[in-house]
Amino acid sequence: MENKVRIEELTEELSKKEELYLRTLADFDNYRRRVERDKERVNAERERAILLELLEAMDNFGRALSSSSESSESSEGENIDDGVQLIYNQLLRILERHGVTPYESVGEKFNPELHEAILAISTDKYLSGTITAEMQKGYKIGDEVLRVAKVQVARND
Q: What is the pLDDT of residues 54-71, one digit of tens each?
């Protein structure tokens, strides 16, 4: 009789230890997944920060191309323009390989999720709330906005 009681006690203790082991295993699995998600989030934030800095360089190349095409008259100036254009195109391809694409804003209805209104102009040429000019291009990574476009919006007074 005493052996039966001891066996039952040991069986119950073993059952509790197995339950504790399974709970600990599940906790560790949850911890591992949480660490992996955190690591992915940190990497995504780091990539986003780098891409935003790269977009600033892209903006500067775009401005350089715009201003040099307006003032370039010599063949040497054209060669520099061609070089800047090649670098700009290369940077654009790098961004596209990372899923970053520009989106068009001019002629679209203002959307605060995609646009930041820098200027509102009074005009009858466009419907109120229509974007008339883009000061800084907006970019997306997939469906997520990486950087909103800075725009000029029509206002009908």
A: 998 888 888 888 877 666
pTM (2 decimals)? 0.69
Q: Give φ, ψ of 128 to 5 degrees.
A: -60, 135
138, 118 Cβ separation under 8 angstroms: no
Can you spell out the DSSP letters for 8-66? HHHHHHHHHHHHHHHHHHHHHHHHHHHHHHHHHHHHHHHHHHHHHHHHHHHHHHHHHHH
Identify the bridge partners of residue 144 per DSSP, sorted by sequence position. Answer: 141
- Per-residue pLDDT tens digits for 87-98: 888 888 989 898
At the top level of CATH, the class of 99-157 is mainly beta
Q: Give the strand pairing for 144-147 and 138-141.
A: antiparallel
